[in-house]
Amino acid sequence: MFDQLQNYLNTIPLNEMLQESFWMFIQLFTELSILFLIISFLVALLRQKLPDSKIRNILGGQKGRGYLTAALLGSITPFCSCSSIPVLVGLLKARAGFGPTMTFLFTSPLLNPLVIALFIPVLGWQVTALYALLAFSVSVLAGLTLNTLGFERFIKSELLEEKPKCCGSSCGAQPQATPTIWQTAGRETWDMFKQMFPYMFVAMIIGAGVHGFLPADFFTEVAGPQNPAAIPAAALIGIPLYMRVSTLLPLVSAFLAKGVSLGAIMALAIGSGGASLPEAILLHKLFYWPLLSAFLLVVFTMAVLSGFTFNFLFT
């Protein structure tokens, strides 16, 4: 694997790769910043309208209904692995059940109407149905398992603490007008963006670098039919990448034509869609290492198990 990567780096001018990485960084950082601000603002508005107690009741961890609701919520939200972070922060601030919150985090980037609509014409309804079933059920099981094992204690609570609201004359000599819900949501959005900005900046630099320097045929060479460990290799390759599942689908036909198995392709799709190195950097702001490691392990395990399942059933 490393020899192939080294040979590729020796054949392409460094300036070309740097330019590609630079423009990829501009695109990724701009896209993520806009999505982060919009989604954070909408989540903040929702929390102004919907009491935290209501959110806790809907997504409580004590009832199985909360896990199913979280998985369904993740299935209808068209977020990528990074743009789901603002919703995650909102759920954690509202003290929603930890298990359902993690279920949402696993489900959101893997399942949404766009992914399903694109899957069917490319891979057929049987593969699509199995993919949806695996992503949904494993996400629920993973959230339930992490909650049972007590991983909630590995959340960094300092980022989730609400700032005290200034009201009346107790906060100064001059009484201030009560801010509108729009002003409150805007302030919360900007505060969160400032806190996450350094992590987003570094994450997108790394994500752009991976895209710019990774050879186009690297996946087909490493996860091709000649490699007996193609499925775990595909999952490992996918996790560092910042790639939507819908972005990968147009490449499926080319991968299949080059002999890559369906299982390896699905492992790549779940690995790259369910997690990414940029997302891991952002999550490090929220999670301590045990929870972050468990999150990545769940995505890797889901990708590998799904890959072997697809190969067993469809080859």
Automatic annotation (TrEMBL):
<feature type="transmembrane region" description="Helical">
    <location>
        <begin position="226"/>
        <end position="243"/>
    </location>
</feature>
<protein>
    <recommendedName>
        <fullName>Permease</fullName>
    </recommendedName>
</protein>
<dbReference type="GO" id="GO:0005886">
    <property type="term" value="C:plasma membrane"/>
</dbReference>
<dbReference type="Pfam" id="PF03773">
    <property type="entry name" value="ArsP_1"/>
</dbReference>
<feature type="transmembrane region" description="Helical">
    <location>
        <begin position="104"/>
        <end position="123"/>
    </location>
</feature>
<comment type="similarity">
    <text>Belongs to the UPF0718 family.</text>
</comment>
<keyword id="KW-1003">Cell membrane</keyword>
<keyword id="KW-0472">Membrane</keyword>
<dbReference type="InterPro" id="IPR005524">
    <property type="entry name" value="DUF318"/>
</dbReference>
<keyword id="KW-1133">Transmembrane helix</keyword>
<feature type="transmembrane region" description="Helical">
    <location>
        <begin position="21"/>
        <end position="46"/>
    </location>
</feature>
<keyword id="KW-0812">Transmembrane</keyword>
<dbReference type="InterPro" id="IPR053166">
    <property type="entry name" value="UPF0718_permease"/>
</dbReference>
<feature type="transmembrane region" description="Helical">
    <location>
        <begin position="129"/>
        <end position="149"/>
    </location>
</feature>
<feature type="transmembrane region" description="Helical">
    <location>
        <begin position="255"/>
        <end position="275"/>
    </location>
</feature>
<feature type="transmembrane region" description="Helical">
    <location>
        <begin position="287"/>
        <end position="314"/>
    </location>
</feature>
<feature type="transmembrane region" description="Helical">
    <location>
        <begin position="196"/>
        <end position="214"/>
    </location>
</feature>
